[in-house]
């Protein structure tokens, strides 16, 4: 028996509009998808309960916070045990500069996205925090020229 929820065209349309603006009122969302408010709310609640909608969040403009330089980092670690991986993930995820951390299949072991003020701030972050971790074997940095499309 599958736990997968079946979505129809209206469900997909609801998800489309919520991706565009998670702050839509139920009344406005219902209007956009051609429903009345009560059935629209039931659908949204069903999508939330099924885990299709995992949450709502604000998109933060890091440049407005003085952290306009975004860098993508590939990190390889020299670890073969779960404890080292989990400790590395906990430490890296705790850094304020880190926006996203992904453990990858194959190489690199990790993909880390950071936002800092400038090149000097990135150098301080990289040398003071990332390369100082005992399990870090290799680091490759990729400076973002332009963000073409950004999630959710």
TrEMBL record:
Gene3D superfamilies: 3.30.70.920, Winged helix-like DNA-binding domain superfamily/Winged helix DNA-binding domain
Chain ranges of the HTH asnC-type domain: 7-68
CDD domains given in the database record: HTH_ARSR
Keywords associated with the record: DNA-binding, Transcription, Transcription regulation
One Pfam family, short name: HTH_24
Superkingdom in the source lineage: Bacteria
Cross-referenced InterPro entries: ArsR-like_HTH (IPR011991), AsnC-type_HTH_dom (IPR000485), Dimeric_a/b-barrel (IPR011008), Tscrpt_reg_AsnC-like (IPR019888), Tscrpt_reg_AsnC/Lrp_C (IPR019887), Tscrpt_reg_HTH_AsnC-type_CS (IPR019885), WH-like_DNA-bd_sf (IPR036388), WH_DNA-bd_sf (IPR036390)
The protein's name: Lrp/AsnC family transcriptional regulator
Species per Swiss-Prot/TrEMBL record: Streptomyces atriruber
């Amino acid at each position: 028996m599958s736990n997968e929820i079946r979505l129809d065209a209206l469900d997909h349309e609801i998800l489309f509009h919520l991706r565009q603006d998670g702050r839509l009122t139920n009344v406005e969302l219902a209007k956009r998808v051609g429903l009345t408010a009560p059935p629209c709310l039931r659908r949204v609640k069903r999508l939330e309960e099924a885990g299709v909608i995992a949450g709502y969040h604000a998109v933060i403009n890091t440049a407005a916070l003085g952290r306009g330089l975004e860098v993508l980092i590939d990190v390889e670690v020299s670890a073969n045990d779960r404890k080292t991986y989990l400790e590395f993930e906990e430490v890296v995820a705790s850094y304020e500069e880190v926006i996203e951390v992904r453990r990858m299949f194959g190489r690199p072991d990790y993909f880390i996205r950071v936002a800092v003020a400038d090149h000097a701030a990135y150098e301080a972050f990289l040398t003071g925090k990332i390369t100082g971790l005992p399990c870090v074997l290799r680091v490759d940095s990729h400076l973002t020229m332009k963000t073409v499309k950004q999630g959710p």
